[in-house]
Specification:
By secondary structure, this protein is α/β, with parallel strands linked by helices. It is 41% helix and 17% strand. It has ten helices and nine strands. The radius of gyration is 23 Å and the shape is elongated. It starts with a strand and ends with a helix. The mean pLDDT is 94. The chain binds the ligand CC(C)(C)c1cccc(C(=O)NCC2(NC(=O)c3cccc4nocc34)CCCCC2)c1.
């Protein structure tokens, strides 16, 4: 899978993509991540990639020309049909379902905004999908682009090692994770729950499922609404609610 990232700050991507699974995936040729510096496609003598907004007001707007020319160059170099994504606060909220969809694409061209945003003609000509990673003010679309690449790349076959690939399923059962414990058995007077030391795998799985449901009910009831609950889930939820009543 290709990720072609159009940005004014390509160097921002060196660190995050030179570590861990993204790097391993790149070495295994499972993904190719390329950054394209929009500034290289500025045409005027001042190398402008932004300009003052029509209608006046503060700030600067990213010019459509440099982005469009960078996009054309990337498009012409790729033999596959890539989807063009604009990372933007006006986009649809990124969810695992959207990541699952996008991870099926042969390639993604990802545009990162800066300043006050991109000229509207970018949206009208080349953007297929606008995506937001959440409702908070950021300085640029680069970190959101990293989030999207991380989330999509980990789904690709072979990117996660065998030991990690189990995570692909367990992490996304649509619930929050149960509590995790590792050695020592007691830390600051806090003991590991006995059930986890019992060796009774059926009991342990039941405990984990129940704690995962409890945590989701307490912190993210919205996730529960989207989830297909099994008969066992419903039974455990009944127990949890009875315990909450005390
Ligand atoms: C109501 C709300 C959401 C708080 C909001 C409202 C108005 C502006 C912003 C904002 O942050 N403008 C700055 C800007 N942000 C982003 O690119 C961005 C932000 C958040 C999630 C993202 N996911 O992808 C890209 C994202 C970076 C500079 C270029 C213009 C966009 C935010």
């Amino acid at each position: 899978m290709f990720f072609d990232i159009l940005t004014l700050f390509p160097e921002m991507f060196e660190g995050p993509f030179s570590e861990s699974i993204i790097n391993r995936a790149r070495e295994k040729d499972l993904i190719e991540v390329k950054t394209i510096n929009i500034r290289d496609y500025a045409e005027d003598k001042h190398n402008r990639t932004d300009d003052t907004p029509y209608g006046g007001g503060a700030g600067m707007v990213m010019k459509a020309g440099p982005i469009y020319r960078a996009w054309e160059q990337v498009k012409s170099q790729r033999s596959v049909e890539s989807k063009t994504i604009l990372m933007s606060p006006q986009g649809e909220q990124l969810t695992q379902n959207i990541v699952n969809d996008l991870a099926k694409e042969p390639g993604l061209i990802i545009i990162c905004g800066r300043y006050e945003g991109v000229d509207e003609r970018v949206r009208k000509t080349i953007v297929d999908r606008e995506i937001s990673i959440g409702d908070y003010v950021l300085t640029g679309g680069e970190i959101p682009a990293m989030v999207l690449v991380d989330a999509a790349a980990r789904l690709l076959t072979g990117v996660l090692g065998d030991e990690e690939s189990s995570k692909k399923d367990s992490f996304y059962n649509g619930l929050l994770e149960h509590p995790h414990y590792t050695r020592p058995r007691e830390f600051k007077g806090l003991k590991v729950p006995d059930v986890l030391l019992s060796g009774n795998h059926q009991l342990i799985e039941r405990w984990r499922k129940k704690e995962s449901l409890r945590r989701t009910l307490m912190r993210r009831e919205d996730l529960l609404k989207d989830k297909e609950l099994t008969e066992e889930d419903k039974k455990l939820l009944k127990e949890i609610k009875a315990e909450l009543k005390g």
